[in-house]
Amino acid sequence: MTSPETVDQITSLIKEGExxxxxxxxxxxxxxxxxxxxxNEDEREQLIIFRMLPLKxxxxxxxxxxxxxxxxxxxxxxxxKITDILNEMSPDDRTALLEFLPANFVAELVQNLxxxxxxxxxxxxxxxxxxxxxxxxxxxxxxxxxxxxEQSLDYVRQHGGQSETLNVLYVTDARGVLIDDIRxxxxxxxxxxxxxxxxMDHRFVQLRVDxxxxxxIDVFRRNDRVALPVVSADQGILLGIVTLDDILSIREExxxxxxxxxxxSEALDEPYLTIPLLRLVQKRAGWLVILFLGxxxxxxxxxxxxGELQKAIVLVQFIPLIISSxxxxxxxxxSLIIRAMALGEFKLSDWWIVLRRELTSGxxxxxxxxxxxxxxxxxxxxxxxxxxxxxxxxxxxxxVALVGIVLWGSIxxxxxxLILRKLGLDPxxxxxxxxxxxxxxxxxxxxxxxALLVLRGTLL
Length: 460
Known about the structure:
This protein has about 450 residues and is mainly alpha-helical. It contains 20 helices and 6 strands.
């Protein structure tokens, strides 16, 4: 973390125009320190600091900057500086940046790339959005099975400088088809005259270029790899690799999107503090209107049972208790099921197992809350008789209703994400507020139905 004294020194050098000293000072920083420094400065000082960096260091820093800052630099740096940086960037990071820019700007930038980099960039941009092809980088080391260990390591020394990672070497045949991957550790421990084929076991994990990025996250999680090869969907030709840092970025985006949906909002496509206010309102208004209309059904349910409420006004006191308990149990179930689905803990075909577990847990939770509700009424009645001569029936009504409502909330909250996934929709859209609203309406119906059965002939 950059100290305040260092920041003050850099600011002073900029104001005094001591750019030679500034350049010398900045070369002693690590890329992550420079990223933090640049993102905390104003726009003018950001540009000055960045211009002082040598090309290699500037490229490393540029790759880790926020997209908004990258766009600011592209708008204000000299064209030759932009071209040099884009040519030096790793293809996957460059693709992520170009996807963020307007089409006409992208076309102009791509034309300024070197021929090899232009070809790679256009290839990456041609893959479907959210596919593994958009994440992969073609910077890897591929060797042949008839090479010796010595030949392979010599090849790594000659060509490994541009590789994204050297943890794993990939073995391909004459057509470029992936036939194995071998950890570099095995090369270092083997005799120089050993053939690559002697190290091969043909047990490797791969990704398809058209595979969904979410599937790639699961593959990484199950196989504990820092990089995985990407092959063509038809012939298995090795096209590139996807590294763990890219997967972690996608995982963060997916988790952020799901969390925002859990809160009853559309996912934000920009950071909270930079998204325009009107767009932020637009993202939140849709779900709020839907939830509001859903809650109107609650008012309709209460109106339907208006006669019962007038006869037994004591029932009104427990409506907030009933509504909150059902909504809470439903929200709990939804959150647990969506997270379990994201971690791949069960498949859609296991829905019956999930239902059985929620039937049991929902019933037990309902009994617990029902007993608490019953005890609460009994204790208050003992302290001050506020529930009248039929307090025992009122307590029974509340207790039984809580069992049914919590049970229903657990079932609805657990099954709705599975139904959405079956329909090809995002389970996160069954957000906690949506489930709570659904259970609110049905909870009132359950509550008053139980009241009619238990209190008939007394209060009703």
